[in-house]
Write a structure and sequence with these properties.
Layout (H helix, E strand, L loop, with lengths): L1 H21 L2 H4 L2 E6 L2 E2 L2 E10 L5 E2 L1 E5 L9 E10 L2 E8 L2 E3 L1 E3 L2 E4 L2 E2 L3 E10 L5 E2 L2 E5 L14
Antiparallel strand pairs: 1-14, 2-13, 3-12, 4-11, 5-10, 5-14, 6-7, 6-12, 7-8, 9-10
Organism: Caenorhabditis tropicalis
InterPro entries: DUF7154
Protein name: CUB_2 domain-containing protein
Length: about 150
Amino acid sequence: MYTIHSQILHWDIRVVRLEGLEQSPAFFNPYLIYSANPKVSGKGSIQLPLLSLPGTGQNFWFTMTMQDNGPMNVVKTSLLKWTIDGNTDQIGLLNGNAYGFTGGNYVCDWPNMQQSVYNMTLDYEYLDSKTRTLQIRIHQNNSTTLNYWPPYDN
């Protein structure tokens, strides 16, 4: 009986792990289309490279680290904004309010966006003067050919 139970339980664990993988956003959106690594310190705003989305009416997986390590209580604002035709959307943290899904030191979201070129801005405020390199990544679900290779570490 122990052998039967352990084999069934082992099989069940593998199925659960596979289902967990299928629910991972990276599984559904494996293709990197945008990457930026801005350095921030103190308070300010950075104009990031433009975001050129190749597809229409798709969900794109946005992720951003707000801090690489250390306590999160030094992060007052870390807000990634994208704008087109006067319309702005955002993910991040603004005065303790989360925009998107947060998990420790990062924030993510899955917005539906149209094919276009978006202005990208990062607003930030940290309560110390340490220099941080944030990681911003955007993925999509198909392998639309880009005419450039997104920088992974710049």
